[in-house]
């Protein structure tokens, strides 16, 4: 199985979502970051290091670039030639031969260019899907603007023949305002994609033991049915099934 994790933007919680998926996938899992940018002095902990710290699973990083920019831009700024999507595809395929699950985390949003020829994460997913089962998860915010960003991301995937397996809500605040409550109701309605996980804000700061024991409560699971229950946040059945936009109701448990 190959799992692709993309997002509606940078900073939406892709890395923590990737870690949660990895923790649930069990032994035989490797997490891959085809291109990591922003590894210069003074920058945040690299994404792949966050995943390794939270899960202890095997990780791989194909290309590292110093500046916190889109990969193509960061490479051109430094005069560096970066591998094409075809090379990333070949390396992921090779890893899929020796691992039960390969989880690939993208960079930034869905159409961020990963090579000098304009190759993107959907290009990688399409090629991998030719000979492997592929699931794609979209990580998104719950705040203002998310309906537009999420629908654009989902439509981009569908235009390439890729049907998202689910939406993951990243960095969900403890206190929800009207916009957040309505967006949780509206996201499945406008995209036609179920919410399969809700990751509380700050969960990436947990120690590995607590992170791994709480993963089930985040409802990150492969092929999660719409009736699944998010025990500590909301009832997923209500989140995904409520199409009454006027009520914007969220069931807290």
TrEMBL record:
It catalyses: (7R,8S)-7,8-diammoniononanoate + CO2 + ATP = (4R,5S)-dethiobiotin + ADP + phosphate + 3 H(+). PANTHER family: DETHIOBIOTIN SYNTHETASE (PTHR43210:SF5). Belongs to the dethiobiotin synthetase family. Mg(2+) binds at residues 15, 47, 105. ATP binds at residues 11-16, 47, 105-108. Its main location: cytoplasm. Substrate binds at residue 37. The keyword Disulfide bond does not apply. The active site is at 33. One of its GO terms (cellular component) is cytosol. Catalyzes a mechanistically unusual reaction, the ATP-dependent insertion of CO2 between the N7 and N8 nitrogen atoms of 7,8-diaminopelargonic acid (DAPA, also called 7,8-diammoniononanoate) to form a ureido ring. It comes from Saccharopolyspora spinosa. This is ATP-dependent dethiobiotin synthetase BioD. Transmembrane segments: none annotated. Keywords: ATP-binding, Biotin biosynthesis, Cytoplasm, Ligase, Magnesium, Metal-binding, Nucleotide-binding. Its EC number is 6.3.3.3. It holds the Pfam family AAA_26. One of its GO terms (molecular function) is magnesium ion binding. Pathway: Cofactor biosynthesis; biotin biosynthesis; biotin from 7,8-diaminononanoate: step 1/2. Homodimer. It is found in: Cytoplasm. Its cofactor is Mg(2+). GO terms for biological process: biotin biosynthetic process.
């Amino acid at each position: 199985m190959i799992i692709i994790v993309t997002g509606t933007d940078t900073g939406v919680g892709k890395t923590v979502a990737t870690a949660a998926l990895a923790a649930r996938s069990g032994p035989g899992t490797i997490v891959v970051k085809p291109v990591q940018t922003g590894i210069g002095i003074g920058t945040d902990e690299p994404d792949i290091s966050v995943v390794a710290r939270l899960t202890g699973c095997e990780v791989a990083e194909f290309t590292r670039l110093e500046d916190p920019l889109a990969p193509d831009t960061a490479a051109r700024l430094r005069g560096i030639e970066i591998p094409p999507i075809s090379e990333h595809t070949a390396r992921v395929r090779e890893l899929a031969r020796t691992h039960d699950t390969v989880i690939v985390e993208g960079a930034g949003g869905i159409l961020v260019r990963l090579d000098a020829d304009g190759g993107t994460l959907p290009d990688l997913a399409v090629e991998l899907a030719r000979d492997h089962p592929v699931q794609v998860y979209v990580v998104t915010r719950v705040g203002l603007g998310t309906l537009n960003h999420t629908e654009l991301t989902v439509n981009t995937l569908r235009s390439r023949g890729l049907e998202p397996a689910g939406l993951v809500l990243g960095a969900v605040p403890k206190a929800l305002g009207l916009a957040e409550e309505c967006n949780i109701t509206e996201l499945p309605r406008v995209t036609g994609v179920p919410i399969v996980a809700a990751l509380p804000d700050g969960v990436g700061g947990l120690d590995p033991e607590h992170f791994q024991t709480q993963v089930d409560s985040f409802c990150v699971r492969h092929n999660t049915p719409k009736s699944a229950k998010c025990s500590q946040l909301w009832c997923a059945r209500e989140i995904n099934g409520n199409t009454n936009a006027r009520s914007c109701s969220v069931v807290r448990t």
